[in-house]
UniProtKB/TrEMBL annotation:
It holds the Pfam family EutH. One of its GO terms (molecular function) is ethanolamine transmembrane transporter activity. It comes from Candidatus Limivivens merdigallinarum. The keyword Membrane applies. GO terms for cellular component: plasma membrane. The chain crosses the membrane at residues 35-57, 69-92, 104-128, 135-154, 160-182, 194-218, 230-254, 301-324, 330-349. Keywords: Membrane, Transmembrane, Transmembrane helix. Signal peptide: none annotated. InterPro entries: EutH. This is Ethanolamine utilization protein EutH.
Length: 353
């Protein structure tokens, strides 16, 4: 078991004990927030996860042919479009030419660029006020431009040979540059396209969940094996428990580490809401968004930049990764996310300082 997961399980246990004893330590509400994610997690990932794996099991020849045609591994395509727990990992693992490339696309690329395009941006643009959108997207640009650095370090830790890693980073770098220019030169069109992409993935997830649920009650129409369905539900449960731990950890930090947050704010020259946002984003950047309008300009840019790679580093995404990958791959995932997120903050800090 990964050390970070073990620590979060301890926090989850603390939240559960507080819930048993009536919330005397004020951790039960944070624990409940984690529990409340189970339903949405099941809706968003179980259908895509099960149906994608079922469909891809019989398509080996097709993906071998696709890998022969493309100048890079076909798993890159799923990695740039889907978050790992929204099908990115399952699809990349099935179509990659090697286990290392599958982990690179399904864990590292999917948890950064794929998560940004399919989840973070559509939700952020739906939550933020129109006046806040411009600053948020300017910060995202820096996160996108520093993203390849985290991917390089993480890919090297996965054991990819440097020449192979560079070859597969080239299309990612090209896409990052195109996306950065599109967000800069045609922001309205780009934002609308990304919103449509996120909404389409969400609707597809709901439809596949409905089909999966129907197959449970009417087995004659089901194409998913019971073992695969059980595997998906176990992953959802693992993610929920870890999210409970991360929510409790955040609650404890906000309660007992105010001095550290103030010092962090002073070092970064931002207000305390911005420092809290950066910390919360490690668990989930979605919880950072309600604080966004209270941040100063510099803090808004730093939080947006950090969210491209650093978001969800210690939250439900980590729980999913730890459920499907070995300890060394989980470590590569963490390093990739943190290097990319911190690099974005540092570059923006120096430029905007």
């Amino acid at each position: 078991m990964n050390l970070f997961i073990a620590i979060l399980l301890v926090f989850a246990l603390a939240g559960l004990c507080d819930k048993i004893f009536g919330g005397r330590w004020h951790l039960a509400s944070a624990f409940d927030q984690g529990l409340n994610t189970m339903g949405s997690l099941c809706l968003s990932m179980s259908g895509i996860y099960c149906i994608a794996i079922t469909f891809l099991n019989g398509q080996t020849a097709l993906f071998q042919r696709l890998n022969e045609i493309l100048p890079f591994d076909a798993s890159i395509l799923s990695g740039v479009l889907l978050a790992p727990d929204m099908g990115g990992f399952a699809i990349a693992g099935k179509i990659a030419a090697s286990p290392e490339l599958g982990m690179f696309s399904g864990l590292l690329l999917s948890s950064t660029l794929g998560c940004l395009l399919s989840f973070v941006l559509p939700i952020a643009l739906g939550v933020l006020k129109e006046a806040e959108t411009s600053l948020f997207m300017n910060g995202v640009l820096f996160g996108i431009l520093t993203l390849p650095l985290g991917l390089f370090v993480g890919g090297w830790m996965l054991g990819l040979y440097i020449p192979v890693l560079i070859i597969h980073l080239c299309p990612v770098i090209l896409l990052c540059l195109i996306l950065a220019f599109a967000l800069k030169l045609a922001p309205k069109f780009c934002l609308k396209a990304l919103t449509i992409l996120g909404l389409s993935i969400r609707i597809l997830g709901l439809l596949l969940f409905a089909y999966l649920a129907a197959g449970i009650f009417f087995p004659q129409i089901s194409v998913v094996e019971d073992t695969l369905l059980l595997e998906a539900l176990v992953i959802v449960l693992k993610i929920t428990v870890v999210v409970c731990g991360s929510m409790v950890a955040v609650q404890l930090a906000l309660t007992h580490c105010k001095g550290i947050l103030r010092r962090t704010a002073d070092v970064l020259h931002v207000n305390e809401y911005a420092a809290i946002g950066l910390f919360i984003s490690l668990a989930t950047s979605i919880s950072m968004l309600p604080l966004y309008e209270k941040m100063d300009r510099r803090g808004k840019l730093l939080n947006a930049a950090f969210s491209v790679s650093g978001a969800f580093c210690l939250g439900g995404q980590l729980a999913f990764v730890s459920s499907v990958a070995d300890s060394s791959s989980v470590t590569a995932y963490l390093v990739c996310k943190l290097v990319g997120g911190i690099a974005a903050v540092l570059v923006l800090y120096r430029r905007d300082g």
